Automatic annotation (TrEMBL):
Subunit structure: Homodimer.
SUPFAM superfamilies the UniProt entry points to: Ribulose-phoshate binding barrel (SSF51366)
Binding residues annotated for substrate, in chain numbering: 27, 49, 80-89, 144, 205, 214, 234-235
Family the entry assigns: Belongs to the OMP decarboxylase family. Type 1 subfamily.
Keyword Transcription set for record: no
Phylogenetic placement of the source organism: Bacteria, Pseudomonadati, Pseudomonadota, Alphaproteobacteria, Kordiimonadales
Catalytic residues as annotated in Swiss-Prot or TrEMBL: D80, K82, D85
Name assigned to this protein: Orotidine 5'-phosphate decarboxylase
Catalytic activity: orotidine 5'-phosphate + H(+) = UMP + CO2
Pfam family for this entry, one: OMPdecase
GO molecular function: orotidine-5'-phosphate decarboxylase activity
EC numbers for this chain: 4.1.1.23
Species per Swiss-Prot/TrEMBL record: Eilatimonas milleporae
GO terms for biological process, alphabetical: 'de novo' pyrimidine nucleobase biosynthetic process; 'de novo' UMP biosynthetic process
Amino acid sequence: MTVPAAPSPAVGRSVSGVPAGVYCALDTVDLDRATTLARLVAPHVTGLKIGLEFFLAHGAAGYRAIADQAERTGLAIFLDLKLHDIPNTVAGALRAVVPLAPRLITLHTSGGPAMMTRAVEDAVNDAEKAGVVRPALIGVTVLTSLDAHDLAAVGQGADPQAQVLRLAGLAQASGLDGVVCSPAEIAAIRAATDPDFALVVPGLRPGGVVAGDQKRVMTPRAAHDLGATVLVVGRAITAAADPAAAAASIAGSLA
Ligand SMILES: O=c1ccn([C@@H]2O[C@H](COP(=O)(O)O)[C@@H](O)[C@H]2O)c(=O)[nH]1
């Protein structure tokens, strides 16, 4: 199939060293599939997201295989490990992965202020020691797969927006560079945080694509217009019959 010419994949405003635009989530345990997807979507996206599925299967060697490819095509790498543990353990995990030089790393804001402030301090030192640019530290607030009913089930009575706002405020006060939120909370966080606070937004479904396990969803265009910095798109691209065409169509929808 012919892939339509893509507009510039750099959309939105880059903040805190986070290049703005669409990042494709390479959620697979298959290294060949990940490298093929990375090649196919490269002309249409700003970055590639490596998450738990790929990293647990292939570790640093797999990361480097994707990062080498990303470097050749000028894409940013987002290492989405969603670290969540005591401060010392998260600091140790960062020490292990900061030398890989991803542009973004995630950790859970519900790990608390002590964990986040320690992460910020240590990431600076880890990056300096490794001679790499410090990654942006991005706090996961309330997963986009959760709704008010799910929050109540785990003892968090707050509605998702109130809980996301609370955690985003905590993340900013702890020195993080931004948060992961759903499209539904972008406007409220933008109003409550510094303009340079990065908003990383999954839960994106172009028209006609099923939500599946995601509960707080919007289209990429709606999230872009609301002010997302990073648009995270996985299955709408990777499960499409033609991933390059799907990525090109999403990039085109933002123009
Ligand atoms: O709250 C969150 C945090 C991270 N994610 C990640 O984004 C992608 C979304 O994949 P889709 O296939 O587009 O649903 C996936 O890698 C998640 O781990 C999220 O969805 N929600």
